[in-house]
Amino acid sequence: MEQQRVHKTYKYKLTPTPAQVLELELVLSRCRTLYNVALEQRTTWWQRSQGKSATYYQQAMELPDLKAACPEFAEINAQVLQDVLRRLDRAFQAFFGRIKNGETPGYPRYQGAGRSHSFAYPQYGGGAVLDGGVLSLSKIGRILIRIHRPLEGVPKTVTISREADGWYACISCADVPAQPLLPTGLETGIDLGLEAFATLADGTRIFQPGWYRQAERALKTAQRQVSRRKRGGNRRRKAMRLLAKAHLKVKRQRRDFHHKTALHLVQRHDTIYYEDLQMANMLRNHHLAKSISDAGWAAFLSILAYKAACAGRRVVAVNPAFTSQTCFGCGVVVKKGLSIRWHTCPECGTSLHRDHNAALNILTRGKKQSGAGQALQAST
Fold first, then answer.
1. Which residue stretches of the chain are H helix?
2. Positive/negative CA dihedral, 184, 317, 379, 305
3. What does 70-119 look like in DSSP terms, one character per residue?
4. Distances from the Cα of 291 to the Cαs of 132, 164, 212, 247, 328, in angstroms?
5. What are the tens digits of pLDDT across the range 227-268?
6. What are 43-101's pLDDT values in tens digits?
7. How do residues 131-146 score in pLDDT, each as one tens digit?
8. What sign results for the dihedral spanned by CA atoms 204, 279, 296, 157?
9. Which of 124, 261, 326, 329 fits as disulfide partner to 350, beta carbons 3.0 to 4.6 Å?
10. Closest to 62 measured CA to CA, from 91, 42, 46
11. What does pTM read for this prediction?
C-alpha cells in the first residue's frame, strides 16, 4: 500500500545580524510600495477602461521597466516582486468572487506600514536555499536559522515573516510522509462551546482558561501606554512593540492549547464529527463575540483537520441545525434558551447537559451521513 503524503509548513526562527535586519525591513517596505502602486494602477485602469482591469501578466511584464526607472527595485529578487503581484491578483479574484456570491465585496486595501509583515520566494532554490543552519536569501545574504526539528518532504516555497519578537522563515514542503496511527475503533462527536471549550459524545468536557480574558487588564495597560506616547517618537515605538508582544503571547497560548487538544482527540478516535458552524454570523452577537474569538474555534478545527490528515484519521462536518434543542433519546425538539444549560425531555425523560446532548446528536448525524456516502472530509 502506497504511503499517504501531505503538505506541511515548517516554521523556524531566524537570527539575522543588525545589518541583515535592515535589509529585510527594506525588502518588506519596497514590496509594500509595489503592492500599493500595482493596486492604484489596477484601480486607474478600471476607471479609464470602463470595467476592464489590468491582469497579473500585464503588470508582471512591466517589472523590467520598473527596475530601469527605479533602480532600488532591481536590488530585490525578481520572483519576490512577482509574488507581490500574485498576492494582489488573488485579492482581486477573491473580491470578484464575493461579488458573484452576493457577499459583502470588500475592495482590496492599500497596505500601511503596520499591515505588511511578509514576503515570499515562490520557488525554493530560485532565491532561497537552506544549507544546514544557514538560510541563503538572494540579494540579502546568509542568515542563521534555528532548525529545531528536521525538514521533511520537498521544499516548495519560503516565506519570510516579521513578528513582534523577530523574524521567521516558513518553508512549505510537499510529499511529506504521513504517520498513520493504529486504529482505535472509536468515533466521537464534539460540541464546541463557551462554558466548556468542547464536549465529547462520551460526556468528557474540555475547558479552556480564557487567555484573552486573563490578559485583558495587562493588554489595556499596554494599550494605554501607547496612547499616551507622542506619535512618531521612539518611546511610542517601544510601547507598540511591548503591546504586540503581549498580544503575541496570548495568541501562542491559545495555539498551544489547540494543538494539544487536537492531538489528544486524534490519538483516541478514528473519526471525529463536528458542527459546520458559520463563525462569521456568530461573531455578530456582540454579547458573545469576544468569548468566541478568544476560544478560536475556526483555528482549532483547522489544526484538528491537519493533524487528522497526518495521522490517517477522518474529520467530518455535519449540519448544526437544532443539535442542542433535539432530544437525543426520542428526537423531540425541546426549545430552550442559551441560559438553560441542562436538557430535560418532557416526552422520554432524558436528562443530561445540553452540550453532551448536542455532542450525541452530532455523532448520530455524522454516522448517518457517513453511511449515506455523504461524508465531508476536512481539507488540510
1. 18-48, 56-61, 63-69, 78-100, 211-228, 234-268, 279-282, 289-295, 297-311, 354-371
2. negative
3. -GGGGGS-HHHHHHHHHHHHHHHHHHHHHHHTTS---PPPPP-TTT--EE
4. 43, 24, 9, 16, 27
5. 999 998 999 999 999 999 999 999 999 999 999 999 999 999
6. 988 888 766 778 899 999 999 999 999 999 999 999 999 999 999 999 999 999 999 99
7. 989 999 999 999 999 9
8. positive
9. 329
10. 42
11. 0.86
Domains in the chain and their CATH numbers?
5-177 (no CATH), 187-209+251-371 (3.30.420)
The answer to whether 275 is a known catalytic residue is: yes
Is residue 256 annotated as part of the catalytic site, yes or no? Answer: no
Nearest to 325 by CA among 335, 314, 315: 335
Grid cell for residue 375: 461524508
Sheet (strand 205-206) strand order:
205-206, 198-200, 187-192, 271-275, 314-318
Return the C-alpha cell found at 357.
446532548
Report the largest interatomic distance among the alpha carbons of the chain, rounded to a whole angstrom: 80
Does residue 295 contact residue 192 with C-beta atoms inside 8 Å? yes
Q: 254 Cβ partners below 8 Å, 6+ apart? A: 211, 212, 294, 296, 299
Q: What is the DSSP pairing of strand 141-146 with strand 134-137? A: antiparallel
Separation of alpha carbons 55 and 86, rounded Å: 10
Catalytic residue among 83, 191, 270, 294: 191
288 to each of 29, 145, 356, how far by Cα in Å? 38, 41, 21
